[in-house]
Write a structure and sequence with these properties.
Elements: H1 2-21, H2 25-53, H3 57-61, H4 67-82, H5 85-109, H6 114-124, H7 126-142, H8 148-174
Helix pairs in contact: 1-2, 1-4, 1-5, 4-5, 4-8, 5-6, 5-7, 5-8
Length: about 180
């Protein structure tokens, strides 16, 4: 949970950078709304968990980004700052889409743990699904107008950040930390 809170700050930054580079005003608004929403909704969810876990804000802030988290967020920010809008969009998409798909699947399976059930409900919700569908629609609008090379670049970023998503979940499972 702490790593997720750290991740979301940089994810929101990457969304805002991508928004600043978006060619359409509606996309600027959408991505900035998503950045603000990620911070508001997730912060509320995390703060509830942290309170229930007995963690103070200072204790959470004192935990450094795990190696995988640092690599993932650095990659997202690097693409957002250094590559064109369509590439940033492709790099950001897996975080949305994978969480929605996992949330829906976990909701079908159910959970007896009320904290986990709350987390699942956030990502399986129709509200979150609408957000994901908006980003998918934007991607589907952007990609056909691009060259084959540009679409290949999008695909590479999408695959890379999909791999980082898996690594992020695995990092949490293993409680990854710095070896030194």
């Amino acid at each position: 949970m702490i790593q997720d809170a750290h991740y979301l700050r940089d994810f929101a930054r990457a969304l805002s950078v991508a928004a600043a580079r978006a060619p359409k005003e509606d996309w600027i608004i959408m991505l900035n709304d998503h950045a603000a929403g990620a911070l508001r909704v997730e912060r509320s969810l995390h703060e509830t968990f942290f309170k229930e876990f007995g963690l103070t804000e200072a204790a959470v802030a004192a935990v450094p980004l795990a190696p995988t988290n640092l690599a993932y967020t650095s990659y997202l920010l690097g693409v957002a700052y250094g590559r064109p809008f369509h590439e940033a969009l492709a790099a950001l998409l897996p975080c949305y889409w994978i969480y929605w798909e996992v949330g829906k699947e976990l909701e079908r399976a159910g959970s007896r743990d009320p904290l986990f059930a709350r987390w699942i409900a956030t990502y399986a919700s129709e509200d979150f699904g609408s957000v994901v569908q908006a980003v998918l629609a934007t991607t589907d609008t952007v990609a056909p107008a691009l060259t084959a090379d540009d679409r290949d670049a999008m695909r590479r970023h999408f695959v890379t950040t999909s791999r980082y998503e898996w690594m992020f979940w695995d990092m949490g499972f293993r409680r990854e930390g710095w070896p030194v």
